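Reminder: ligand-aware prediction takes two inputs, not one.
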Amino acid sequence: MIRTIPVGLGARAYDVVIGTGLVDRAGEHIAPLLKRKRVAVVSDTNVGEHHGERLANALEHAGVATDVILVPPGEETKSFEGLADLSDRLLALGLERGDMVVAFGGGVVGDLTGFAAAIYKRGIDFIQIPTTLLAQVDSSVGGKTAIDTPRGKNLIGAFHQPRLVLADLDILATLPARELSCGYAEIIKYGLLGDFAFFEWLEANVHAVLERDTAALVRAVGRSVEMKAEIVAEDEKENGRRALLNLGHTFGHAVEAEMGFGDALKHGEAVGLGMAQAFRFSVRQGLCAAQDAVRAEAAIKAAGLPTRLSDIRAEPFVADALVAHCAQDKKAEGGALTFVLVRAIGDAFVAKDVDRAALKAFLVDEGAV
Ligand code: GLY
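Here is what comes back for the chain with glycine:
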């Protein structure tokens, strides 16, 4: 079962191929894009251990000489140190401008490798083979690449579009259930922000998706990528509509920052909570009917995601600290707080003038002190 979704970016257009057996057939997809039959595959030690040999064999089988670079798993690798190390290892391989780098992993590997590719000898092509549901529906598509600094996540980076994305659904078989729920948060985001019919389909099919039913995954990943591709083609550099993809991210990011960006709260979980909060805040602002917030929350919760601050920890969050994180968010413009808010399920918009006092009052309502 294969679905191909084009990302229409003119001379930089590329396909996102979604389906089963794609790692084993990677050579067929990748070889035609190469000037020289040679690639460097970047992966982390977890993914490399489970699937690295299979990918290298598939590439070698298609006559593509393959070097594998393994980096440590985890967000700490998405750093200046991690970038320096990866760049040095790419240089040591003697990779030339016309060669190709393959990012084979989750969001950390994709973001780091994409950024290294963006600056390696002033830019080298790369391919994404995302191995988490979250990376398949969000971070591997659209060309955002970045590393973190001690001042925040994804603050240093570049837009650098991949030449191809291969989203192999078979690889999700070994993904922990918690990671699957995290990916689901980004999937339901597309329904909540712009497609009510897709949202209704997800309400009815959440268990099929989380049980990794192939047909359900093809539909869920396919529709998510289709929506992202359409938005990115219209607004690649996030001057307008692409910001809608940040639904739930400003609220979620604030709580993530308070929790220290570790395993206690994963990004997808923060996005689940953040989207529920975006709906409730929109209700409080008189923008959205209360029943939509209740329905959105139930659908997020059905995937095992948190929807309330008290789902994260018993100790209350400090409202001023959360507001400060929201204000520091890189999407903040001039001093005014920018949020993605909603008029209804499937109808999100960017609000650039959110009042701090109203935000604080809302967070106190939500249980912050
Ligand atoms: N993850 C949001 C975006 O790609 O714009």
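The first strand starts at residue 2 and ends at 7. The radius of gyration is 20 Å. We will return to this case in the review session.
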